[in-house]
User: Fold these one by one.
Assistant:
Number 1:
Amino acid sequence: MEVQLVKMQTTSNIESQVLDSIKRRRSLRAYSYMPVEEEKIQSLFEAARWAPSSMNEQPWTYLYATRGQQLFSEILECLNESNLLWAQHAPLLVVSLARKKLLRNGLPNGSARYDLGAANAFLSLQATELGLNVHQMGGYNKDKLVELLGIPTEEYELGVVMAIGYPGDPETLPENLKQRELAPRSRHTVSSFTMNRSFKNGNE
Ligand SMILES: Cc1cc2nc3c(=O)[nH]c(=O)nc-3n(C[C@H](O)[C@H](O)[C@H](O)COP(=O)(O)O)c2cc1C
């Protein structure tokens, strides 16, 4: 496995057939000014609702804000400079949180962040189906977000912030971001992260 890690190659090609929305999903940075319709916002959260979760605890929580709301400006204020540059043009911002404790007994939920990631992935694919782009961001000031939004950190762990909207014109982006927007996506090859053997049995 270590040898393969060193030799890791990337590819932009689809190696096997996958859902069309998986092929089409991208983390774009250029947004159209068009707002996201309320029923589509609800559809995104409906998709998250149906994600699998440990013990069906559904530990995800979303705070969302549309352009013009005070909450929208507060979330924007917390983004890193490099994200703010493009994310300020998205019409919808979503803060994703994971509930730390199990509803059934108040004990810590070791799967909360994992389950939140699954819900965010469902949300992102639903967005693709609706013609929307979701761009997840870990690059934001967590202390500031906690303070501005009054997030009770004894109850919630912070996930990503998402910028969501209809894709816009890449020409509106600064040159370096435009290049990234138009570049093909690259991925490690499937064979570099899968093994049909255990770690014990060498190259059997
Ligand atoms: C947990 C997480 C944090 C991320 N943080 C950022 C970020 O702060 N800024 C950014 O531009 N992209 C961010 N991304 C997007 C990734 O860079 C992107 O998903 C990756 O490059 C693959 O590109 P693709 O989503 O278009 O396939 C983040 C994605 C995830 C899942």
Note: The pocket of flavin mononucleotide is lined by residues 26-27, 83, 136-139, 160, 185 (CB under 6 Å).
Number 2:
Amino acid sequence: MRFNRIRKMDISNGPGVRVAIFMQGCPFHCKNCFNPETWDFNDGNPFDDETIDEVLKLCEMSHIAGLSILGGEPMHPKNIEGTTKLARMFKEKFPNKTLWSWTGFTYEQIKDKEVFNYIDVLVDGQFVDELRNPNLKWKGSSNQRVIDIKKTREKNEIVLYED
Ligand code: SF4
């Protein structure tokens, strides 16, 4: 598994100042994807325990509200093991900071994965250029959903995140 880059301070992917990691590799190839450099599963850098340590260290800063895991496709079968390990370790270490993630899969396609024990908010669905709207918060096209995972699991139906 590989990752594309880490942002030490990110203010555009979730609330507050966050650490963001972009995983490498995405099979969806959405038209006008904002991140095509993340498509190739062989590009980027090796994702290993050192990467996790680096991300967790960055998250220690008191001004960091949480971690955002993007891509690329963090939930692809080639990536989900590493994504889950990072998510698990992040929540163990920082139970009061939030974990957000973005995926091109729908929540229904992947909802049984362990990673949802740790994710607070999931933005799901592929980017659809025809449905692009720059005024949408946290998502690029109107088909995507910003899902409150804890409430969704409690109610067993999709509950959207509210600021
Ligand atoms: S799912 Fe995301 S990263 Fe993958 S091609 Fe679509 S917009 Fe790009």
Note: The mean pLDDT is 98.
